[in-house]
Amino acid sequence: MRSEGQSARTLVMTFRAKKYNIASPLATEPTQNVERLERDESSDDDTDDDTDDDTDDDTDDDAQETTLLEKAKNVDFSNKSQAEDFLTLKEFAKQDRLRRNILHKVAENPPDKGQLKWYLAFLDCLFDRYGSLLESQARGDGFTPLHSAFNKWNTHFVRRAMANRKIKNIGRIFEKQTYNQENVLCFAINCCFKGTKIMIEQCLPSTIAFEQRDLRGNTLLHRLVVKGPPGGIFAEQWEILQLSLVKQLICVHSNVLIFKNSAGNTPFQERLAFLKDEGRGDLIATYIMDFCMRNLSRQDTIDALYRTGEERQTEFDLAGLPSLIIPPGYLKGLSAHLKFERILKYVALPNLSFETDDGSIVKGPSNYGQDKRAIAKESGNRATTKKSRENRQKGLTNMQTIFDWLRDRGVRKIVNVIVIDNGDVAHSDEAIENCLKGFDVEIWNWKRVDLCADVIQCVAGTSAKEISLYCSGNNAVLTSWSSSDGLACLEKFPQLETVKLYIQEGLEKKSQLKRNVDVFTERLKTAFQTQKDLQTRTLQKELGILKEQHGQRGLDIQKKLQIQKEIEVLTEKNLQAKKILQIYSQFDTGPHSYTGSFATLNSNQDSEHAWLKVMEQFAEYILGLPDDPREHIKIAVIDDGVDPSLSLFEGKIASGSSFCLYAGSKNLTNPYFVPSGALYGTVMAYLICKICPRVKLYVARLDESHDVHGKRQITAKSAAAAIRWAVNCGVDIISMGWSIDLFDDRYTQFGNLPLDDLKRAINEADQKNVLMFGSASDRGSDSNICYPANSESVITIGAATETGEMCSWVQYDRVDFTCPGYQVPFKRGDGTPSSPQNGSSVATAIAAGLAGLILYCDRIASGKIDEKLRSKDGMSSAFYNMSWMAGDRKFPHVSEFFDIEPAEIEHWKGYTEEEGMDESNGKARPSLSTVAKKKLDRILTDLKKSRYYV
């Protein structure tokens, strides 16, 4: 619905249109016959323009202009002397009552038959002397001379202006908008002008013209994607030109893809509306989607393609799964809430195994998905051949299950594939081909050592632009890859632009390996470039022939269109052929193997986590305030203990207790300060301290065991005891990064007494206003059978990326909030970086730390903690406000509240606890505490605002 301001402006535009007898403000199409454009656009040498001049009002100004134009017809503009004498007449400097100058008049009067040569010479002389007048805008309609030219289909005028080198500001002139807010490029599109591509180039480097809006809020791209073909034989030509212009506009200024018009549509959505949502197979809609998937960030891609509530999954990432064992029904559970786009930006898969219904682990499931009774029958059949048994023991086929599932979900293309396949047994060549065939992969990163180039060629040869290779150090493999039968064959890999080589040391010395890599690089680059040079020469020759044919007179229009399409294809191939192959190499000898992780050559191992960086900077500010240990927030970390050797924990561990007995003992316990090897509790405590530096930790170690698959199992009895201990210690917050399966045999076979006791313990903590954060299940659809996540007294937290995208294994409707839980950095006790941490347990600790920081800030700002903030509803409201401020619902965008620049931190360091006079201005200087309270009070005011839950 248009706002009142827009409606009023539309009325004003309509009034002007009537007063000055111009087109309606919302009419964007010129009214002249399209057949005139076809004749005019066929060639600048044709002289078939037969246009009746518009009759002007009988005013003195118009009469003078007409007289001037009639005089011009008697001038030989190839004669410099005659041209100079004529162009110095005073009439050229005059404007009529509508402020139209001589260029407006010339633009509105296309040449008659036989006058084209004279007319072009006239234009050249005019633009040489009076080119600056092209910027002048007429009163009433706001037309520049170029607008007027397009309005009369006078493309000769436009082309000559574009070609004149003395007009230095032509791009700025294209930005001039009429009173209908249409710039010159809008008029060019309305006229299906072939020279629009050159006009766009002349606008650069400025992008103002591409972002300008008309009365409906449309950008140039909005208008372009809905411009229907004109009538007549020019329709097919326009479709070719239209797609070419869309590509050009997006490439030079992709930001316009996320601009919305007054109807709330981006250009892609506007195109679908124009096609009545029948966009599948449409070349323009397909190109925009492909471009978004390849080049835009995830959020920008979603903004460009989808309306709110209609979003689809644009990637499938299981890289952060806490467990590498996929339970039965996991994919089926994801199917219930994941809707995939037909093109995915990327698929990232770790080295996964599958758990069958009977609880066994399938690591090499050549028979995965096969009927179990048939397998059992085959296993018990003595006639089973040795060969069939061997087949099941060969290469893995795990990933085929996932890629087949993606096909069933409608996925047809994957831009980037990242698969870790570095186990003792890897996937077979055939399995890899079956996984990826038909997906047109562009960035190949299947992390299997010494993979044959033929496998890549079979699956992605014609589409691959970037290929990552992993070498064991065997020089025979390097030689094979760089041979004419390998990657060096341009015919097999026509799109290849980048090769990344990761090489292990193997049996050779590093110096020998380096020589081998240098030879590989030189061979591949030389062979590839030789073929590209030959291809370029061939393509240029073919293009020259086609362009010569296209320019022939009397050519059949269908033949001309066919040649035009071939020229477009060959031009793109020629641009591709001119690209130089880039080759990068890296020795894979670091502590984190490239083969076994999701790191790449472009990855920054020490890259900062944006969300945590904001909180760490705010924590630095907090640490600069006066410290009173009595004000510290008490947080209980209930998990597997904490390693106190980390310097971050110095002075922060207030107390601890263990509820983990030694196996077979009733008296001996595993201490809380000697944690299990997994370091779950250590990671949780580390993250809490990073976010809430003024904290006292209360560490409780739970009793746990592991099932046959290695998955840890927490006992409900120890969890209940730990919670009661924490409550008795007077903690403010309890962090629980674990879950208990309600249908665990320990509770279903022998009654629910331990579980009932855990529920009572949680209720007791809730009654004492202890905030509790619990981890959502990371098993997808099974999360409804886990505790304490399902307790109404617990704030349930799921994992998300640092920018707020929910991890694929988390179900939106089964968490209260999400926090960063993917690729979260962690350092060991010796200060060295450990592998990034993933999972909802990580997110739970971060949420507990954030809640602790909010309580501490409230205590400092007001002298005590607001009781509402101590309740689940009160803290949920604060989290919700942090999410709502950024348009989200469940992910707290902390930068809106806690972002502090380092310079500001330095500024606060200038304050002391003593009040005094500021010598620089003679004013009273408040104490540090006073300044801090004011700042924190502003933050807390926003956090405590009452908002309606949607």
TrEMBL record:
It comes from the Eukaryota. GO terms for molecular function: serine-type endopeptidase activity. Residues 41-62 have a biased composition (Acidic residues). Residues 21-62 are annotated as: Disordered. Keywords: Hydrolase, Protease, Serine protease. GO terms for biological process: proteolysis. Residues 632-855 form the Peptidase S8/S53 domain. Belongs to the peptidase S8 family. This is Peptidase S8/S53 domain-containing protein. It comes from Orbilia ellipsospora.
